[in-house]
Amino acid sequence: MSDLAAPNSIPGPRRRKRRFDAAHLALVAYVVLFVLFILAPLVVVVGSSFEPRELLRFPPQGLSLRWYYQALNSDLFVGAAWNSLIIAIFATLGALLLGVPAAYGLARFDFKGREAVSGLLNSPLLVPELVMGLALLQILAGLQIASSVLTLTLGHILICLPYVVRTINSAIVGVDRSVEEAAANLGAARWRIYLTILLPIIRPALYAAILFSFLMSFDNAVLSLFLVSARTSTLPISVYNYVQYSLDPAIAAVSTLLMAVSVVALFTVSRLVPLDRIKQ
Amino acid sequence: MSDLAAPNSIPGPRRRKRRFDAAHLALVAYVVLFVLFILAPLVVVVGSSFEPRELLRFPPQGLSLRWYYQALNSDLFVGAAWNSLIIAIFATLGALLLGVPAAYGLARFDFKGREAVSGLLNSPLLVPELVMGLALLQILAGLQIASSVLTLTLGHILICLPYVVRTINSAIVGVDRSVEEAAANLGAARWRIYLTILLPIIRPALYAAILFSFLMSFDNAVLSLFLVSARTSTLPISVYNYVQYSLDPAIAAVSTLLMAVSVVALFTVSRLVPLDRIKQ
Amino acid sequence: MSLEQTSSRTAAAEPASVSVEGLRIGYGALEVVKGLDLRVAQGEIITLLGPSGCGKTTTLRAIAGFVSPSHGAIRLHGRDVTDIAPNKRNIGLVFQGYALFPHMSVFDNVAYGLRMRKVPAPEIRERVERALKLVKLERFAERRPRELSGGQQQRVAIARAVVIEPAVLLLDEPLSNLDAKLRHEMRVELRRLLKEMGIASIFVTHDQEEAIVLSDRVVLMNEGRIEQEGTPQTMYNRPGSLFAAAFLGQANFLRGTVASLGADGTAIIDIDGDRFQAQACGGLKAGAPATLVVKCERLRLDRSGRSQAQCTFEAANFLGPSVQLQCSFKGQRLVGLLPASTEGGAMLEPGAPVTLSWGEADGLIFPRAD
Amino acid sequence: MSLEQTSSRTAAAEPASVSVEGLRIGYGALEVVKGLDLRVAQGEIITLLGPSGCGKTTTLRAIAGFVSPSHGAIRLHGRDVTDIAPNKRNIGLVFQGYALFPHMSVFDNVAYGLRMRKVPAPEIRERVERALKLVKLERFAERRPRELSGGQQQRVAIARAVVIEPAVLLLDEPLSNLDAKLRHEMRVELRRLLKEMGIASIFVTHDQEEAIVLSDRVVLMNEGRIEQEGTPQTMYNRPGSLFAAAFLGQANFLRGTVASLGADGTAIIDIDGDRFQAQACGGLKAGAPATLVVKCERLRLDRSGRSQAQCTFEAANFLGPSVQLQCSFKGQRLVGLLPASTEGGAMLEPGAPVTLSWGEADGLIFPRAD
């Protein structure tokens, strides 16, 4: 039927109209520029880390790994990096152990004040990190406890917790209750439902929570500023202290490495979960 | 029919079974303890701000507004607070003006690399704030631009942008495209669809973006540490500097006021949008 | 109200697969189930039918153990399970949305209940394969639920529920997520499957057609109570109340007053001067308001029935296998469904006079409140 | 293939409300609509019917302007609008999910199109009120869409689309979001409403019952092309192909071979030795494989039809107004739908012999590929 020509003129092939394309192209161009604008500072940092001479500048005068070599051989930075890594790992573990059950309780049980608790945890900026740092400093001073890796880790847990609870909570809310009921109906006790049904289903959220928690802790500067001692300095604090007296390409190299950790962590997790499902 | 007794014994009224209640109560108790644990540091800060004497301690030895009076009469803190307020307002405006169109482009147009851009914007921790501060410092130094309220505002826009884009983007993705098509079908041109349909529908997300952007900027310490000059100090930086040489209850009072700003902002927005819909 | 209540009570001698006695369930001050008795025999399929909010799903959830009744008892094969946790009840449940485990293969979904019962692995394999064969999904064992169609997912849910050999199978609107064509096919298929397995089953649905096709016995619920129960034929042809008559099938409701009562269980209703003899239902009193109920498909476009109404033709709509005839009678609407082969009313003009008739046994007279 | 194609072409003298000529639409390499011609006259209601993926929704979106065709033209009242932006076309569109503006009252939703057209405020008020009255929602003007039921939302969507007095009204599966009972009611109601307004309308649906009840003309689509078009009666009773026969109504398909061709447009099909005379459809050749199609409701449980099949009874399912009879005939399944009043097959045992018959005009013979 489609092959019969209609009596009143069938037009020939027509160019696909670009009715929306002007607006479309403009917006796409805008988005690209926008991303470049956001990325520009990073390009500057990464670029100038390859500078061979003593002066921090962009574009670099050559390409050298001299400052990377120097940074990786600096006891100051390497020691701080180990501290950061250990604190980030234990802070993440702690935040998961405390946060996942809390997220479950918030998602699955009705109790008075649930709305308030939920709202509180959904507003992480309610407590400025600076204030949190001050409070912890004051508590440590009051209890006469010396700053240590342990106190830093406890402080970081406090910072990471709301993010873990939020991520896991919204994942659990998204799991149909009837799936848990189906497991109970088939004979599973409560703890088996958690282990065999709930946790496997929310695995993407668990990965996201681990990623965010790790990076929140690893990159944290504000809280650490109040809690570090000379012995327990973390990488961001070492960078900050270094900048106080010298602005050479070593700092760009360390910054680039700091970002590399984020990229590697993000990339690892994105192999396990699609990137756009990683929501805070 | 229900009033007829069945022949084989209808049991009398029975106590409502508490089969799940042990687990339920334990979890609720846990959640409450958990929240207290998170809130404890703040209680210490707020509590000690009412201390009448010079020594920062908790619990306070009395109740006095002396340190609030002193903080609100300190040129140092009041000037910094004005700076913070002005910067936060303009950074928020800037982030909205740049971020809303970008969020729309990402949500509604397909183009190569959209996934990548979207992933990038959904991972705000990819770039540690510290590195961003260093980069901006380097750029300003390279271009020989003096630090000012303007440069601070630009820096804060860069920090706030990804949050704005993420919040608005996920709201726009949640708006059924057919609603926009319905408006076009009824005769609305593109710009009228934005103004009369899209923006009003995503109003809760706009409020949330404004709230987060404002607080991100107002409470920001890390980026500001690199960009402030003596003249342009913001409130968090003033607090930090003050702590360097003195730890008296004035700092608790200012911290409490800083939190009060967050609470007031959050409360204002929650009057307009339900709290649990404020997602980052 | 139940026509079959007596018979199901006297059957108490043989132990029912499930029995529910005096069930009352409340959420706070709101009582959702207000006293309900139910017995399901081995191999019997019953349907809890009713509008949303009538308590049918709550009843099902109480049997499964997810809701605690405030009064009453639930027994499986005579054993009181009212206080037993849901994971210890041995009841099969097919959820409305199927509630498959998204992270497991079809095989693992079906095997889950057996693994929880610590059945040895070789036996698990054998029983799961048998269950998948029964629902014709043996070739899909390694798929994930999201890779299956709606109908296939539903069959996985059934296999998963029956593989544990439950005392009773509960199905909560199992067809409501399928599209119209598949839903019609699955009704018959599902009944055949359940009969083959011989498991006592309780369906919950708000779709009267589904209830009629699927069940041995329909339990019509209304506001937390049983309105009527009986075979699909009884429920359809002999509704016990106006509510039941309106809920099952499409019917005409003509308002009038009782003219007189016959000794043979019939009555005569007066509708604006015209009188019709029909079956008397419920407590009719001469002179009291009453409603004459006639199913749409029982109306005939000729004078072959004893009851005849002089109507005004309004419209005829072709429905495919049948033609819908819209007429008015004394200002009330009368709708007939005629086989399309009769070409009924095709040549009528709107406003034309037309006679519709029906058999005496097709009419039911109910008392009316106002 | 179209039975009515000629007549709709000769009607080209009067300008159609909408005409679509040689429409082709592709997404990348995939061509979804492969050449489609369509004319809708003033006040006519047509339905694009077909399985999902047949291109019916894409066609509708092309008429509305949201999809650009690669070939062909779209005309409104003779004016070529193929290159006109969607907001300048003056076409009414009712979306599947209604797409109401959630932040506006019902009044503002309906007024939106008029405001975009800069109609003066008093006239807007008057026209919106008239439109809301038409869909019986005048008392809901100040409500928000979410405060309305599904059926009410759908009526708001219709009022919003018709208040701008569009050249044509497009409706994309407008009933699919309603529950079964409401959907059945709204079909008739919607047709009445559209006829009252006299607007040319194009429905898109995959539900054949809906297409039959709603439309003046059904356009059956398959894989981007028109399979057949015609009145609902023609489409239902005289399907032009096996595809059409399978898509409209419930039918039996008996495989056999062509025994002989008659001169009067009939043919005789041989099914494992039994021969049946029926209407010949398509290019039949003696000895070639063919399929006999008989609609389920045309089968009778007696010998009154000229074609008679000696079957084996399998099962009878009570459906309420009718009884479904499952039989087997020469190893093929034969399903009959009999009026329940005949009590057909109630006393038969599975395996019993039974004779089903049908009229000669009820059978259609189609050529079969394999």
From TrEMBL, chains C, D:
Ranges for domain ABC transporter: 18-248
Keywords, alphabetical: ATP-binding, Nucleotide-binding, Transport
Keyword Iron in annotation: no
Stored Pfam families: ABC_tran (PF00005), TOBE_2 (PF08402)
PROSITE patterns listed in its UniProt record: ABC_TRANSPORTER_1, ABC_TRANSPORTER_2
Alphabetized SUPFAM superfamilies for the sequence: MOP-like, P-loop containing nucleoside triphosphate hydrolases
Keyword Nucleotide-binding: yes
InterPro entries, sorted: AAA+_ATPase, ABC_SmlMolc_Importer, ABC_transporter-like_ATP-bd, ABC_transporter-like_CS, Mo/tungstate-bd_C_term_dom, P-loop_NTPase, Transp-assoc_OB_typ2
Superkingdom per UniProt: Bacteria
Gene Ontology CC entries for this record: ATP-binding cassette (ABC) transporter complex
GO MF assignments: ATP binding; ATP hydrolysis activity; transmembrane transporter activity
GO biological process, one term: quaternary ammonium group transport
Record family assignment: Belongs to the ABC transporter superfamily.
Name the UniProt record assigns to this protein: ABC transporter ATP-binding protein
Species for this entry: Bosea caraganae
